[in-house]
Amino acid sequence: MSSEAVIVVGAGLTGLSATWYLHQRGIPALLLEAEAEVGGNLRSRSEDGFLRDLGPNSLMIKGDLLPDLIRQLQLEDRVVEANPLARRRFVLNRRGHPVALGPDVLFSSSLLSLSARLRLLSEPWRPRRPQSQNDESIADFVRRRLGPEALTWMVDPFVSGVFAGDPEKLSVTAALPRLAAMEAESGSLLRAALRRRRAGKKEGSSRLVSFRGGLQELPRALAARLPPDRLALSRPLTHLQRRGELWHLQTPAGDLECRRLVLALPAAESARLLRAEAPELAAELEAIVYPAVATVALGFPREAVDHRLDGFGLLIPRRLGIETLGVLFSSTLFPERAPPGMVLLTAFLGGAQQDISGRSPAELEAQALADLRPILGIRADPAYHRCALWPRAIPQYALGHRQRVERIHELRRQLAGLELLGNWQGGVALGDCVVQADAFQRTFAQVDTATGPS
């Protein structure tokens, strides 16, 4: 039986970053991954001249942490910046026309009625929510502060696009903590936005980036910089057991022991492994819902699409009854995503408000194409089409989520040597995963390998 001081399970971005940071501190953690490649839902494929990301499509860089990591991995020359047009986001209005989001929304009837626009302008005079009240959904928060039309035509499609979620069920303090903090700090979202915008100009703005070979370049670079004997691919973990001061791990390739065990996995997978050892903890983890999401890549000759595709993409409000959640203009967003004279679109279906279980890739591709044809003026069949189905895509930060996460860690602390990481806490964005990994290594107590297992 092999013994280790630290074992990390799960080579998604969080687990890879945590292992990398531990190695930077001289802690030689062993990283186990059930799949044959690293990256979790970060998957990139180059086919027939098209480059597609099967999961997340872009990385938002704020502050110094991600730039420092990119420098350490020597990836600076692989970074590609988003097209400036990506600042423009479209949403489909009630007439079925794409409308660019921005300040003009307040001066035009193309998206909101006159009464809804006046309701938006009155937001600074709306009372704050009493701090004593229970958790509040995103929908209730937006209705209270911005009005029902803002929820239907602006916030609901945003929540569907970012979280694949239902604003009626998601917690505003857990899923959009910045929004809740803006009200708490300034009493008004508009006042807080103006203050933060002024502060942001002084502190430096964020950047939207990818890599020449797609987003999977980042986890692959992290894996390549680890010592070869510190990363074990195609090594699923089948059973966990706590024995005295050690964790005993069973894998098809042999058993392992460690003092410190880090599960950097989707909540349901951590629950499966912990069910026998800690059933109450497993039940809390299992209660975190992950709806299925499909990404559909569609490639066309440029002249076959009427829309100018001059933006980041298009969101579709659920009120319209259209199955597709939204579409990214992938070949506009980043260079060399499509061959010359071609364009690449990436559509999203599924999520918390639409069950796609049992749908085949061909059915999902056909649905996306049928939805987008009239919206974007598509006048040809796709020259390229691929579908990726994620049965458990994005964790839902439902009402009571923050309290659930607190209970999870209270129960986790009863199991000495166990750490739990993953995007079911701390934010679902890729940058949040790296922030979480960095915070973990900063609080990680140095394992005394001299007295550890040998």
Question: Can you walk through the features of this model?
Answer:
- There is one protein chain.
- The chain is of the alpha/beta class.
- Helix content is 33%, strand content 20%.
- It has helices at 13-24, 65-72, 114-121, 138-145, 148-163, 172-175, 177-186, 189-203, 217-225, 267-274, 279-286, 330-333, 361-376, 401-412, 430-443; strands at residues 2-9, 30-32, 44-47, 50-53, 59-61, 79-81, 89-92, 98-100, 207-211, 231-232, 239-243, 246-250, 256-264, 293-301, 313-315, 326-328, 342-350, 384-390, 418-421.
- The strands form four sheets. Strands 1, 2, 10, 11, 12, 13 and 19 form a seven-stranded mixed beta sheet that branches. It has a seven-stranded mixed beta sheet with strand order 8-7-15-16-17-14-18.
- Strand 11 (239-243) and strand 12 form a beta hairpin.
- Helix 1 (13-24) runs parallel beside helix 15 and helix 7 crosses helix 8 (189-203).
- The chain starts with a strand and ends in an 11-residue tail after the last helix.
- The model is unreliable at 446-454 (pLDDT under 50).
